[in-house]
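Recall the central idea of this unit: under ordinary conditions, the amino acid sequence of a chain determines the structure it adopts. In this exercise we apply that idea directly, starting from the sequence alone.
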Amino acid sequence: MKSFKKILAVLLAVLMTGAVFAACTKADNNADTTEPSSNATKGTLVMATNAEFPPYEYFEDDKIVGIDAEVAQAICDKLGYELKIEHIEFDSIIPGIKGGKYDFGAAGMTVTEERQKEVSFTTSYATGIQSIIVKSDSDIKTADDLFKGGLKIGVQKGTTGDLYCTWDIEDEKLGTVERFAKGADAVMALTSGKVDAVVIDNQPAKVFVEKNEGLTILDTEYAVEDYAIAVSKDNEALLNEINGALEELIADGTIQKIIDKYIPAE
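Accordingly, the structure predicted from this sequence is:
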């Protein structure tokens, strides 16, 4: 009888051990399916841009490259996100961010009071200059000449060049502002005599002047401004994440190296 009890006890112990092992195995399997590996990312962030703004963003074959593309990639690498970049019209970027279609926008975007009413901005990572392109034989010699009246000024729609010229020239009835979907279209209008000057950021202005004979950039700038990344006002957590990464990348010199790669010191 005692032997039978011993055998029964052994069998029960084996069965219990198997049950515990099975339970542990199931728990381990569940852990594998719910917990990301150390190499997994947090997910994908979608960046909206307008790739018509060299050297900040432009197409190289079918790929969007430039300062903003590399800055965004560095931020995502530091935070553990995949990055997806989408090319859209410039004036659709902020509405797309507000509507939740895009996580953030980077497009050589200047921080202005009007834009701050619509979206939040990160720490500034670069400084931009609004320049004036004219024909080499133009009577326009300084920024002040734009306010003498009767001129047609070409701008890219939705940019700060558009905003400034609208406020300073069109609203004051000192001239007219012709808006184009692309900066290149505004420059083509200048070369063909449809506008008298183009107000646009300095770096793309240099590219356009190099590619179009007979144009020049005035020595006096129209405005100096700060570039930053736009994030939805409803996503403060993402804003804080990007700011944290961006400030580290500025401090360790990564951002300056990216800028220097595309804008060598003169």
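The longest helix spans residues 2-34.
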